[in-house]
Amino acid sequence: MNTLSSSSLVLDLFIYIGLLVIIIIIPSYYLNILWMKPQRLRKKLERQGIRGPKPSFPYGNVGEMQRLQADVISMKASRSINGDFVADDYTRLLFPYFEQWRKQYGSIFTYSTGNKQHLYINDPELVKEMNQSITLGLGKPSYITKRLSPLLGNGILRSNGHFWVHQRKIIAPEFFMDKVKDVKSLEKEIDSLIWEAVCERKCQETPLLKKDLLQMILEEAMDHFASNDESRHFIVDNCKNIYFAGHESTSVAASWCLMLLALYPEWQTNIRNEMSQVCPNGSLDVDSLPKLKT
Question: TM segments (predicted)?
Answer without folding.
Answer: 13-35
